[in-house]
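Hello forum,

I keep getting stuck at the same step: I have a sequence, I want structure tokens, and every attempt I make locally crashes halfway through. Rather than fight my setup again tonight, could one of you with a working pipeline run this one for me? It's a single chain of 136 residues.
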Amino acid sequence: MDSKLTHDTTKAIMNCATRFDGYAYFETVKKPGIEAPAYLIEAQRYFNSTSELFGSSSKNMLVNFFLHRQFHHWGWLPDAYSDEWYYMVYLYLHTYRLPTPEKYRINSMAKEWEHCPQGSAEAAAADIRKMLMQRR
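Reply #2:
Ran it on my machine without issues. Output:
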């Protein structure tokens, strides 16, 4: 699989997504009879079918988190310009400037994200935008 992303951009995308604890988020919104996997799958299904962001930045970060959990299980990031690739870069561009909500923070991952070299998150966003423009 080839995402065609640079190593630094790949690292930024993964760190951005994994700094957020989707399971902790689920614990704050869960309803009786709904388990975490079903909730996460439904949120992702809605996003994938509509390509619309949620009104909540935390819920958008949740979908990004869950998408990357799937990539982790696959063992790779999606091929460049596949549907999953577009979801991944779209969510990165909409979440990378957001602060990590304290109550949904995976400390080790959030520290890595917060201590990445200055400008690396913006450089990753610029790389993604360039790829998107080249695809036109």
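The mean pLDDT is 92. If your local run keeps crashing, start a new thread with the error log.
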